[in-house]
Amino acid sequence: MPDRYMPGYTPPIVSFMTRRAAETHAAFFLPHLRQGLKLLDCGCGPGTITRGLAARAAPGEVVGVDLETSQLELAQQDPANPPNLRFVQAGVYQLPFPDAHFDAAFSHALFEHIAEPVRAAREIRRVLKPGGVVGLCSPDWDGFIFAPHDPEVEAAAKLFRRLQEAQGGNTAAGRKLGTWLEEAGFQNIKLTARYECLEDLTVMGNFLCDRLERAPQQDDVFARGWTDPESLARMLQAVRTWEKRRDGLHALAWVCATAQA
Description:
There is one protein chain. With 261 residues, the chain is an alpha/beta fold. The chain has one domain: Rossmann fold. Helix content is 38%, strand content 23%. Strands 1, 2, 3, 4, 5, 6, 7 and 8 form an eight-stranded mixed beta sheet that branches. α4 (69-77) links the parallel β2 and β3 (85-89). It is globular, with a radius of gyration of 19 Å.
């Protein structure tokens, strides 16, 4: 099955992605960067993390790649782009670069959405110089915290996970990053984990509701028996109620991996 970014690229989803920055979402990788190195960002999306990486690597060449045209257009149009940064349309399975071209490679929130993560890691290793460093970061939904407890909110999260798994993704990708890197031939693998707590719960509320509202048309969830109209309506209402609670919490579990080619 061809890989497809399951959440899609609607305004709530893009808004969720553009909140990311190198200082927050690539903090584990920044100590590995130095001025002048060549760096690749795989699955760069709107480029908000890539720009921060490019600032650290300047004047070295930094390239962000993504398959989605709309995301590349957003990335390319940002006036904050430094001169050492460019964006290229490409997928992680076939990177349009020669062997041993980059000193470092990075990827945030990509490997949970692809069906062949080891193949992708091997391709990243191919374009890295010997001893080059890779940094990957993916969530692990088993570690997500929704508070206070609400069975309908948790049902919404479970349905989202089912949709992602059906598209070839892996919602427990975080804990598997090290294994995938090892199978791809990387060495000196190190794993860390962190929690990201969203101050504004409507960010996650919009993210979940936007995708689940499209599920009946895009994924035949009713025909498949994954839910029914009444149950889906209850989930969506519960999420909208939860996101307004002053005692609410959503904590995302991220696993970060570094390794050497």
